[in-house]
Write a structure and sequence with these properties.
Number of strands: 0
CATH class: Mainly Alpha
Number of helices: 7
CATH topology: Ferritin
Shape: globular
Helix content: over 70%
Strand content: under 5%
Largest sheet: none
CATH architecture: Up-down Bundle
Distance between the termini: 49 Å
Order of helices and strands: HHHHHHH
Length: about 210
């Protein structure tokens, strides 16, 4: 029996299922957490809250990445690019699971506004896909570039002794660099002004809110 070819509606329904898994489910990583085997750091309450706030931002960022990739894949015109986007989304699921686990270890929780972040990112991904695969892949390049930058900032801001969080973020950063390069090689174009600036502003808003909520 030949495999069924999914229609656009099918892909949208699958996207809805993935949204529920990202927002309300318990993500399962295909790869072991980079924090495995590392000792838990001794953090005072201020340090613990700060580390948790940073990891909550990164968890929310991975929720947004899931939404962006799934939104792009749902309306991607090229089947090969669609599979590439879904593969990247699967790797982002690892990041989501690692951040969720780290939040639990820090006795904290994900952002209460994750459904809002997901919906907005999914819409952006879908609009990017409608603009064509080169633009859609360009969004991946720019998104991953900005994520790489903020992960570098968080590695500097984390408490020095928090080796577990650092290991997670360092591996995530390496993956994001690879995702950006893969999208660039597939034909991702540079986004015109003011799109990168608007993406940066929306990211700043998300980070400010998610740190606390």
């Amino acid at each position: 029996m030949s495999a069924r070819t999914l229609s656009t509606l099918d892909r949208l329904l699958v996207g809805g299922e993935r949204a529920l898994e990202a927002i309300a489910g318990t993500p399962i990583a295909a790869r072991r957490s980079p924090a495995t085997g590392l000792a838990e750091a001794e953090l005072d309450e201020t340090e613990r809250r700060h580390a948790a706030g940073l990891m909550r931002i990164n968890h929310t960022g991975e929720v947004c990445a899931q939404a962006l990739y799934v939104g792009q894949a749902a309306l991607a015109r090229d089947a090969d690019n669609r599979e590439h986007l879904l593969h990247a989304a699967a790797e982002e699921t690892d990041h989501l699971a690692w951040c969720a686990e780290r939040l639990q270890q820090l006795h904290s929780r994900p952002s209460l506004l994750n459904p809002l972040w997901y919906a907005g990112s999914y819409a952006i991904g879908a609009v990017a896909a409608l603009a064509g695969d080169p633009v859609s892949l360009g969004f991946v390049v720019e998104t991953e570039r900005q994520v790489e930058t903020h992960l570098a900032e968080h590695l500097e801001k984390l408490p020095v002794q928090d080796a577990r969080s650092r290991a997670v973020l360092a591996t995530m950063q390496a993956d994001e660099i690879r995702h950006a390069e893969a999208a660039r090689q597939r034909g991702g174009v540079e986004l015109p002004f003011p799109l990168p600036q608007l993406m940066h502003l929306s990211s700043m808003l998300m980070k400010t809110v998610a740190y606390r909520l």
